[in-house]
Amino acid sequence: MDSRAWDRQIVEKQVDCRLGETTGRVFLYNLSVGGGMIDVGSMRMAVGDSIEIGLGGIQRAAGEVVWAHDGCAGVRFATALHEAVVRHLGFNPPTIGFEEQAPRDRFGRILPPINAGERPALY
Predict the structure, then answer these.
(1) Residue pLDDT, tens place only, 84-123
(2) Domain PilZ, which positions (predicted)?
(3) Could you report the per-residue pLDDT of 34-83, keeping only the tens digit for each?
(4) How far apart are the C-alpha atoms of 115 and 7, rounded to whole Å?
(5) What CA–CA distance (Å, rounded) separates 111 from 13?
(6) Residue 69's beta-bridge partner residues?
(7) C-alpha torsion angle, residues 80, 29, 84, 61 (rounded to 10)
(8) 3-state secondary structure (DSSP) of residue 53
(9) Is the CA virtual torsion 100, 103, 106, 109 positive or negative?
């Protein structure tokens, strides 16, 4: 059973990160008002390290690394984010169905699939 205090939003974006004197880009997997999960890449970090994450130019969130394993880390923010910031950065699936997303010609007709390896007939 999951004992998280806040709902998490899938984010999946690269963001700026500062860990002590080191700065770099990390991959933010998910986000909640109280923290998130990041892929730190080649940055070295340990539980208890102070960290600051840039949230897409909206704001910066300072916090602490609460777990680290296999290049990923969990961050708890010192100050909770506003729910609107979390929703703004979260993944929003398209609201239209797959058929409506299909590529169309200028008359609105669905384009046929492209068959790799086949050459169009020349007339």
Answers:
(1) 888 888 876 667 776 677 788 888 888 887 775 666 666 5
(2) 4-89
(3) 999 999 888 888 999 999 999 878 889 999 999 998 889 999 999 999 88
(4) 42
(5) 31
(6) 72
(7) 40
(8) strand
(9) negative
The dotted CATH code for 9-89 is: 2.40.10.220
Residue 119, both tokens: 């050459």
d(CA 97, CA 36): 30
Answer whether 17's CB lies under 8 Å from 54's CB.
yes
Phi-psi region of 84 (alpha: psi -120 to 50; beta: other; left: phi over 0): alpha
d(CA 76, CA 97): 36
Q: Which residue has the tokens 């703004």?
A: 88
Supply 75's token pair: 């961050």
Nearest-angstrom CA–CA distance, 105 and 42: 45
Contact 51, 61 (CB under 8 A): no
According to DSSP, residue 65 is labeled E
Alpha helices in 1-123 (DSSP H): 83-89, 98-101
Token pair of 117 as six digits: 């390896």
- In this structure, what DSSP letter does residue 16 have? E
Residue type at position 45: M
